[in-house]
Design brief:
The complex is a heterodimer of chains A (127) and B (191). Chain A has 127 residues and is α/β, with parallel strands linked by helices. Chain A folds into 2 domains: 30 residues; 91 residues, Nucleic acid-binding proteins (OB fold (Dihydrolipoamide Acetyltransferase, E2P)), CATH 2.40.50.140. Chain A has a 5-stranded mixed beta barrel. Chain B contains 2 helices and 8 strands, in the order αβββαβββββ. Helix content of chain B is 20%, strand content 45%. With 191 residues, chain B is of the alpha+beta class. Chain B has a single domain, classed as Lipid/polyisoprenoid-binding, YceI-like (Lipocalin, Beta Barrel), CATH 2.40.128. The chains are: A alpha/beta (127), B alpha+beta (191). At the A-B interface, β5 and β6 of A face β1, β2, β3 and α2 of B.
């Protein structure tokens, strides 16, 4: 309280600039969005989605989808839906839960020519 | 009597022939693959914010009889620590919407599946295609067989100019001229 007026102003100025700097820094260094907080662009069956991607795969790049389909095979990191869509899981331990018909949420990353498959990453179960 | 015996013998020989053909065919067409291979790159310059990203969704196929190897990854699946960096990478540098993938087609030269119980070095050469531009790549890969998986690791470097990636003057000092790419793929046999 007994600080001279000049010091108070300097202190206030420092405080404000620190807040601004940390705000800007946090904005610049923000980590990529989690898919949980992103807008869902498609909800439907695997077969419907396959059709849409065959029409135009570019349009769906990076889009978040919720798909319902049949698990046709599994590996250590993901599952195959309807023999055509490979879904890579965020948490591979989830894969152990075996259900044939499932609903998953994931991000479409592209059409894989090598395997003739659609590929999703950051998947998790939606049941 | 003798004819019947001859016929039976022929039948047996046929079966053996078919069996042999089938097994050799199986050997010839052995394929190992992964859909979740890891490809990383670093373009950091000392004293600046590290610029690196990893892609854990690389598809890789290896034909074990010939050593032919094909790899494909989606640019959009590269993960950065910082969202802005990821955005700039996709939108300004890689034009991901126009060129969504990178492809490598090449060969592990003189590859021999029976000789990789211990880590062995093979020369890996081929064409890397990014942004529709091809570049010859040649490096050394470490290959070994571990728990029925073929593990391939290698590093090589490219420069942004190779693929006509223009870097604005303002950030030129922060992005290395030599981008180091390292890969680690664990392939399992296709059944």
């Amino acid at each position: 309280m007994s600080l001279p007026k000049k010091s108070k102003i300097i202190l206030l100025f420092l405080l404000i600039s620190l807040t601004v700097i940390s705000g800007v820094y946090n904005y610049i260094m923000k980590p990529p969005k989690n898919i949980a907080s992103m807008k869902i662009n498609f909800t439907g069956t695997s077969n419907e989605f396959i059709k849409l991607v065959e029409e135009s795969s570019i349009e769906w790049l990076g889009k978040i989808v919720i798909l319902e389909g049949l698990v046709t095979s599994k590996d250590a990191k993901g599952i195959m839906l309807n023999n055509r869509i490979y879904c890579q899981f965020i948490d591979p331990t989830e894969i152990k839960v075996f259900q044939q018909k499932i609903k998953i949420k994931g991000r479409f990353i592209g059409y894989d020519d090598l395997m003739s498959e659609l590929k999703l990453d950051q998947c998790d179960f939606q049941n | 009597m003798e004819i019947r015996w001859l016929l039976r013998k022929l039948d047996l020989m046929n079966k053996i022939f078919l069996l042999l053909l089938f097994t050799t065919f199986n050997l010839v067409s052995q394929t190992y693959l992964t859909r979740t291979g890891s490809t990383e790159f670093k373009a950091s310059v000392d004293a600046f914010e590290p610029i690196k990203a990893s892609n854990n969704s690389t598809t890789v196929i290896l034909k074990t009889n010939s050593g032919n190897l094909a790899a494909q990854l989606f640019i959009t699946a590269f993960k950065f620590k910082v969202a802005l960096m990821q955005e700039h990478f996709n939108e300004n540098y890689m034009d991901t919407n126009e060129y969504p993938k990178a492809i490598f087609i090449g060969n592990l030269n003189n590859f021999n599946l029976s000789k990789i119980s211990e880590v062995k070095q093979y020369s890996l050469s081929g064409k890397l295609m990014i942004r529709g531009i091809e570049k010859e790549i040649s490096t050394i890969a470490n290959v070994n067989l571990d728990d029925e998986k073929i593990i391939i690791s290698a590093t090589f470097s490219v420069s942004p100019q190779d693929f006509n990636i223009k870097i604005p003057y303002a950030v030129r000092k922060k992005i290395a001229n030599k981008i180091n790419i390292s890969l680690k793929y664990e392939l399992t046999e296709k059944k």
